[in-house]
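Question (not urgent): is this output format expected?
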Amino acid sequence: MRTDKFDFALPRHLIAQHPPERRGASRLLHVCGNARVDLMFADLPTLLREHDVLVLNDTRVLKARLFGVKESGGKIEVLIERLLDDRHALAQVRASHAPPTGSRLILAGHLPVTVLGREGEFFRLRFDGAENLSAALEKYGQLPLPPYITHAADAEDEERYQTVYARQPGAVAAPTAGLHFDEAMFAALRAQGVQLAYITLHIGAGTFQPVRAENIHEHVMHSERYTISQSTVDAIHQARARGGRVIAVGTTSLRALESAAVREGDASGVGHPSASPWRGQAGGICAGEGETDIFITPGYRFKVVDALFTNFHLPKSTLLMLICAFGGMEEMLAAYRHAVEQEYRFFSYGDAMLIERQHE
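Got this back:
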């Protein structure tokens, strides 16, 4: 399947540069097959029902961007991709000349760093100061806004480019579907019997990489680490047993759930399959943690998720391909054309969709 099938025209003025004045003051497009309804995010409770379970990604965005100098005095920019432990990280490095293995950097004027080598497109770095790396990033780093947001991160971004339920530091991009939710919305959902459950998937910078291959199946996905607790597995099991639906908040939640799925007659997945109450049943998942490079494209058979709450995504992106797999390719591209015509706001700070899965 050709990548250009997933292209669409997007006027630049529809790319949201700032969040709405308050959380939840965004629009919501409800899509079920060819049916589309224009709503507001505040209408979400009318689309959910008792015993549904909403699965959210509780990752927290690191202040992962650092500026500094090389030993030679040349300027350098570092974007942390993944924390490996309290002193080591994988990172993208931008400089006029790539720093050689063994060279030293000084980041943010305070942090001495040694370049240990290359791992594919990333550099392995050792932070040599006494501070814990997470604490050092919080103190000296800058929030890494997506490349389509043109202003430097400010105090508003530090608050609004995190979900209200962010708990586990490790992401370099926000799970942006979750940015709409506030405690008042969660209270309203709980009051009508909707369960909330959490996974953690630490989003890497690769989420913004375009698909450059002409054929989508030649694209190599980046890998991200995720964790699914037994309590979340149990909440999904209970929702299913009571006739409820599994609704992923964001493509990251969906990718984690589908990565941990147990296929019929198969005990693959993460953790211990025997711990899952659905072992051997299609749609079951395993608690545990693992790496995922799952690339969901049209033709994929979904095993866990029934509906997806998500923002609008980049043309020719892996995330647009995912939603086309989920809601139907023609239906999703038609929904995007509708969103452009109706001037919905796009991308991280933009409006949202609730997509009902098109069953095989």
